[in-house]
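To close the chapter, one final illustration. This time we ask the reader to focus less on the individual chains and more on the assembly as a whole: which components sit near each other, and how the overall shape emerges from the parts.
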Amino acid sequence: MSTIMKQSTFTPKPKNKRTIDWTKIAAHIILIAGSSLFLMPFIYVVSTSLKAPADVYTFPPEFIPDPIQFENYPDALTALPFDQYFFNTIMLAIFRIIGLTISCSLAGFAFAKLRWRGRNTMFFIVLLTLMIPAEVTLIPKYILFAKIGWVGTFLPLIVPGFFAENAFFVFLFRQFFMSMGQDMIDAARIDGCTFFGVYWRIIVPNAKPVFAVVAIYVIQNNWNSFLLPLIYLTDRAQYTLALGLRLFNEQYYSQTHLLMAASVFVIMPIVILFFFMQRYFIQGVVFTGSKG
Amino acid sequence: MSLNALLKPKRLSFWESLTAWLFVSPWIIGFILFTGGPILASFILSFTHWDIVNPPQWAGIENYQDMLQDELFFQSLKVTTIYALIAVPLQIIVGLLIAILLNTKIRLIGLYRTLFYLPAILPVVSVAVMWRWILSRDWGLINWLLSLLGIQGPGWLSEPEWVLPALILMSLWGVGAGMLIYLAGLQGIPTDLYEAAKVDGAGTWALFRYVTIPMISPVILFQLVVGLIGAFQVFSQPFIMTQGGPQNASLFYLLHLFRNAFEFFRMGYASALSWVLFIYIAILTVLVFRFSAAWVFYEGEIKNE
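The assembled structure is written out below.
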């Protein structure tokens, strides 16, 4: 984060303080133009989601709906049980956060702070699994879960999380723990603290930012996840928001105003989360990038 | 006492090892059950015919031979490769340009960064549903913008030649994640490099070409590899927006694989498809790394000229 704040820029400094800095004005103009281009799809979709059906199909499009039809939202969200989908998505996210933060941080701790034979070999395997595309394991995993009767339940989406399914998170925790000082750990050991005690009393309280980054990544991935829920959740009552929206897309194909309302509803939680947790979203990306 | 001192480190390391193995054991079990095991299984499965219901039958290399007869396999490989070759470089260029723009010290820069980054975090399913409307031929935003320039926009999702450009355009909306990585890279460039180059009389373009680009080339390489792998995993967008159509013009590889596995229940064939994809991506990655030596600059590395 600190690197983001410390800027290196090659905007030429103004030679004379009184002259207007045209490069800055040009930068503002380009940035305003660019960001409005990026923002426009949002505005367009949100405005469609508030339109009366008769106003949807107009060309050129009107960006301010008249009349504003807020009832599109309750209409869309009750057409299919979106409350149920919302609940399912949150429930999955909570289980995955618990499973992944515990199992990945324990492994990351062992890789970063404990001395044991086989550590380097094991860590090399962790790095290797980062490079394996998910498609390769998709089918055998499906067959495994089908054979033990878990297809059609939430278990294939929850249980692997408790077994450090995400090698990237193991890597992330390890990198973060590596940067934590050894002094406190040694002191705690001398005072008779167990290794689990070190993890629980020293590492975890001092590594809150990385736990937050992982939790937010899990929420985002979980909201985004489509292919896995699609193959494992066969009962409509179990659908996540992503699956529900896809079903809505098929059933209300022609009712664009409702369809847009439903998709705005699905993105809103992530947008709100983003605005409150921006720092952590960006931190996660910076961690990722520094790996390259 | 001295005996105790000798024994102590040994006892310590035993507990330390035991704890370590205990802490890593969830990952080990997970690796065996959900990664290592499945990779082996999928390799073996690729030599069988299996519909899950009936027992699998040994098929030798038949699945791989069938692939050579499968027109849709070649079509999906073609579609995905073209998409990757065009979308990934464009994503890099656009992401980098935006990052450079955002790497200036002006007011409201935080707000601009947020606005450019936001689309990247949206769930891909919602983005796909939204963009089907944005790309609509008669009422869509894109064709409206084009009409302002006096251009009659095409039926993006209904004409075979426009489907891939449409999906590529849509992917550019999400370059925010890459942009942030470039931004972090740009900010890691020491300012004195620019100062030194300026003293030597370098202009803005020379600074960009001979300082910025070499300094962030490792980041570009990283994004190139990650982008390639990502391009071969495109699934939700065509699945929701086009179902691979029109005329299979957006039949992405993973969509073809998905249909074979979960619609036709040809698990053996689908496993073979996944292995071919794996090898194809691996070859591409190796090629990228091979050619990267020519343009990627690592600090502290001395090259023979």
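Chain A has two domains: 2-69, 76-290. Chain A touches chain B through 102 residues (CB under 8 Å). With these observations in hand, you are ready for the problems at the end of the chapter.
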